[in-house]
Amino acid sequence: MSSALTSGTDFISVAKVAELADGGSLLVEVEDRVLALFRVGSEIFCLDDVCTHDGGPLSDGPLDAAACTIACPRHGAKFDLRTGAALTMPATKATQAHEVRIEGDDIQVKLREAGWVPPEAKTSAPAAAVTGAMPAKKEECCGGENHQYAHAAPGSLPVANACATPSAAAASGALTEDVVYEELKKVIDPELFVNIVDLGLIYNVDLVPAAEGKLDCKIDMTMTSPMCPAGPQMIANSKQVLGVLPNMGTVEVKIVLDPPWTPDKMTEAARDQLGIF
Fold first, then answer.
1. pLDDT tens, 73-105?
2. More confident: 10 or 18
3. Which residues contact 35 (CB under 8 A, 6 or more apart)?
4. Greater confidence, 167 or 13?
5. Where are the beta strands (DSSP E) in the chain?
6. DSSP for 27-58?
7. Sheet harboring 43-48: ordered strands across?
8. Whether the bond into 119 is cis, omega within 30 of 0
9. ∠ CA 197-198-204 to the nearest 5 degrees?
10. What is the DSSP letter of 138?
């Protein structure tokens, strides 16, 4: 998909070449569909203006001309301008690419169906799309033999079941906030395959004296996006790993969306794992 002339029908003139600066983006609407045009030198690309992670507008994000990528301004997910492929977490699904040609001074677009990529992109070896590969070993998650993954239907995200066995430190020591944070690292975001502590999803932990010498635990947790489908699962897994700790009373998890989550809340290790620099 480039600015070179291509054959075909159903191309629609959407803008003038002069309207799109090198390294810039331009929003257009075709058949009630909002598209983003991007220019890299003499090439022009067209994608649906939507991050498949949480619906953010790609046209507002930074364009990397050398890598031919656009990044979502909300959470940093990167997409290939040529194919729409999702290249980094937290996006796991491609956004749709569309065909572009230049006729005189007109930029013309031909809408394509889901899954279409330009023929030249298939042979130019663009960066591989994110596939959501599972961690290679249990030890990469929490080190517990009881931590397992259940796979759903092909193409869907796996379901993570947090290890319910307390670590040696948690089982032998006093119940503290530090212990709670360490145990919460066993809870893995099933979309991103990073633990919720390193992702920066835990805003606060409070231990409150309760009956019979126990401590109730109150947690403020956020999500990477307000409509995150993995929220209920991560809440349940958090209660699961903490509920088995010695002297633990009730565990309450409160979802907090203010301030909203941003990639800078992640640890350096999490950012490296997700390819966000």
1. 888 889 999 999 998 877 888 999 999 999 999
2. 18
3. 14, 27, 28, 29, 46, 47, 48, 49, 98, 109
4. 13
5. 12-16, 25-30, 33-40, 43-48, 63-64, 69-71, 78-80, 97-103, 106-110, 148-150, 159-161, 202-209, 215-221, 248-255
6. EEEETTEEEEEEEETTEEEEEES--TTT---G
7. 12-16, 106-110, 97-103, 43-48, 33-40, 25-30
8. no
9. 35
10. G
Q: CA-to-CA distance for 253 and 269, rounded, in angstroms?
A: 25
Return d(Cα 225, Cα 208) in angstroms, integer.
Answer: 29
- Residue pair 165/183 in contact by the 8 Å Cβ criterion: no
Structure tokens at 74: 């909300």
Tens of pLDDT, residues 44-71: 999 999 999 878 899 999 999 999 999 9
Where helices occur in the chain by DSSP H, the ranges are 119-123, 168-172, 177-184, 231-243, 268-274
- Whether the full predicted model's pTM is greater than 0.90, yes or no, is no
The C-alpha atoms of residue 229 and residue 259 are separated, in whole angstroms, by 19
DSSP 76: -
Structure tokens at 114: 């889901």
**Residue 218 burial (CB < 10 Å; 0-12/13-18/19+)?**
middle
Cβ pair 82, 68 in contact under 8 A: yes
Place of tokens 């835990």: 202
Report pLDDT for 105.
Answer: 95
Answer with the residue of higher pLDDT: 214 or 166: 214
Q: Is 217 helix (H, G, I), strand (E, B) or coil?
A: strand
Count of positions (residues) in the chain: 277
Measure the CA–CA gap between 206 and 177, rounded to whole angstroms. 7
Among candidate residues 50, 26, 51, 56, the one with its CA nearest the CA of residue 38: 26
